[in-house]
Q: What sequence folds into this?
């Protein structure tokens, strides 16, 4: 630190020397003094071209000295990061998962720790959509996490979040209670919007939409909870499902569990295929099936 102070003093002396006033003999206006001053020693002009050299040398010495001083100061006051605080209540991510993500980064100095690298490591977890990392003096890392919110399943290996984006955690099989959506990659937001619209229509007649699929040809297929598969075609899907909901609302005694398929691919009607009930079982009206 003392050496750094001396270096700064040297740098300052270089800069001040560059701007020091030049010693120039003042002009003498009165002729009476010219002869008297003629024999006096005249001071030499300082070489002006040396001024940039002194300025540059002073600045360079100052910058180098400051760098060494900063490193020395950081080394003296920086302590290793030894504590991690999580300011968010976690649902799908455990504290152990966070510590595993930070393995190899903890133990670094307070100032030398790369916060952006920590953020990147945390967001590498499929369940973490965003992370905010803050250093708290003297040895603490404070972390706030935003977790993905699963809304539906997409195929068998991925989930759809609240923004209609796909992510791939390891435990997808645990979310069988979520609706199943399917389509080509890039169509997840289209399928998600359609699912929300159709769910509202079917919920008005107490039917639950549990699956929705958009095939490569643009056709929509719906799956109802405990009930049939609905083929809605490619065009006017919402209007067709609304027509079925109106029809179902006026069919007393028609149990949804009795239906195998419902075909809405007609301009002014629909086709229903009932399930074949086992012999001796009762339908919704209490009538025994005879095969």
A:
């Amino acid at each position: 630190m003392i050496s750094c102070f001396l270096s700064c003093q040297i740098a300052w002396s270089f800069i001040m020397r560059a701007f020091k006033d030049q010693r120039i003999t003042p002009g003498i206006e009165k002729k009476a003094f010219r002869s008297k001053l003629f024999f006096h020693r005249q001071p030499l002009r300082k070489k002006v071209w040396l001024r940039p050299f002194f300025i540059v040398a002073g600045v360079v010495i100052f910058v180098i000295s400051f760098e060494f001083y900063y490193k020395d100061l950081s080394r003296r006051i920086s302590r290793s990061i030894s504590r991690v605080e999580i300011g968010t209540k976690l649902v799908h991510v455990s504290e152990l998962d966070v510590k595993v993500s930070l393995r190899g980064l903890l133990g670094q100095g307070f100032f030398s720790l790369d916060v952006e690298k920590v953020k990147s490591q945390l967001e590498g977890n499929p369940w973490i959509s965003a992370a905010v990392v803050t250093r708290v003096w003297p040895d603490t890392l404070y972390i706030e996490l935003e977790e993905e919110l699963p809304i539906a399943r997409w195929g068998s290996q991925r989930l759809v979040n609240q923004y209609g984006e796909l992510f791939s955690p390891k435990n997808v099989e645990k979310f069988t209670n979520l609706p199943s959506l399917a389509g080509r990659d890039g169509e997840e937001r289209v399928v998600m919007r359609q699912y929300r619209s159709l769910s509202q229509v079917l919920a008005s007649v107490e039917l639950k939409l549990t699956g929705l699929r958009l095939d490569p040809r643009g056709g929509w297929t719906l799956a109802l909870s405990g009930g049939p598969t609905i083929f809605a075609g490619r065009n006017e899907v919402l209007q067709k499902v609304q027509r079925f909901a109106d029809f179902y609302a006026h069919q007393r005694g028609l149990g949804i569990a009795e239906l195998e398929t419902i075909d809405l691919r007609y301009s002014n009607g629909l086709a229903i295929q009932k399930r074949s009930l086992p012999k001796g079982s009762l339908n919704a009206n209490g009538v025994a099936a005879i095969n």
